[in-house]
């Protein structure tokens, strides 16, 4: 019954290969740079909002 072992090994190898494919980046260099810059702009905007909120009412925090 060696065939069952072959199937298990092939299945494990295939799962490992499929997991590796999900992690790969499918964007070109310029696309990747563009998304990176967009994400950085969003984070800067969030930081500015947080700093403005702190400045106007630093003592007012939501605690439950």
Automatic annotation (TrEMBL):
InterPro entries: SERF-like_N
Biased composition (Basic and acidic residues): 1-20, 33-64
Ranges where the Small EDRK-rich factor-like N-terminal domain occurs: 1-36
Pfam families assigned to the protein according to its UniProt record, in alphabetical order: SERF-like_N
Domain of life: Eukaryota
Record-given protein name: Small EDRK-rich factor-like N-terminal domain-containing protein
Region: Disordered, residue numbers: 1-64
């Amino acid at each position: 019954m060696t065939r069952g072992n072959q199937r298990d090994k092939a299945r494990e190898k295939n799962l490992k290969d499929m997991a590796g494919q999900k992690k790969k980046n499918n964007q070109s260099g310029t696309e990747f740079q563009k998304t990176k810059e967009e994400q950085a702009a969003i984070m800067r905007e969030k930081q500015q909002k947080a700093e403005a909120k702190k400045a106007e009412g630093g003592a007012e925090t939501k605690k439950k």
